[in-house]
Amino acid sequence: MPSVSLTVNGRKVSAEVEQRTLLVQLLREKLGLTGTHVGCDTSQCGACVVHVDGTSIKSCTILAVQCEGTNVLTIEGLAQGDKLHPMQEAFREHHGLQCGFCTPGMVMSAVDLLKNNPKPSEREIREWLEGNICRCTGYHNIVKAIQAASQAGR
Amino acid sequence: MATMIGTSVKRREDAKFLTGRGNYTDDINRPGQVHAYIIRSPHAHATLASVKTDKAAKRPGVVAVLTGADTAADGIGGLPCGWLIHNKDGSPMVEPPHPPLAQGKVRHVGDPVAVVIAETYAQARDAAEHVEIDYKALPAVSDASKAIERGAPQLHDEAKGNLCYDWHLGDKAAVDAAFAKAAKVAKIDLINNRLIPNAMEPRAALGEFNRATGEYTLYTTSQNPHVIRLLMGAHVLHVAESKLRVIAPDVGGGFGSKIYHYAEEAIVTWAAAKVNRPVKWTAERSESFMSDAQGRDHATHGELALDKDGKFLALRVSTVANLGGYLSTFSTTIPTWLYATLLAGVYTTPVIYCEVKAVFTNTVPVDAYRGAGRPEASYLLERLVDIAANVCGLDRAEIRKRNFIPKTAFPYQTPVALQYDSGDYPGCLETAVKASDYAGYDKRRAASEKAGKLRGIGISTYIEACGIAPSAVVGSLGARAGLYEVGTVRVHPTGTISVLTGTHSHGQGHETTFAQVVADALGVPMESIEVVHGDTAMIPFGMGTYGSRSLAVGGSAILKAVDKIVAKSKKIAAHLLEAAEADIEFKDGVFSVAGTDRSKTLGEIALAAYVPHNYPIETVEPGLDETAFYDPKNFTFPAGTHICEVEVDPQTGVVTVEKFTAVDDVGRVINPMIVEGQVHGGVVQGIGQALYEGCVYDPKTGQLLTGSMMDYCMPRADNLPAFSVGHHTTLCTHNQLGVKGCGEVGAIGSPPAVMNAVVDALKPYGITHLDMPATPERVWRAIHSARQPRAAE
Question: How large is the ipTM?
Answer without folding.
Answer: 0.98
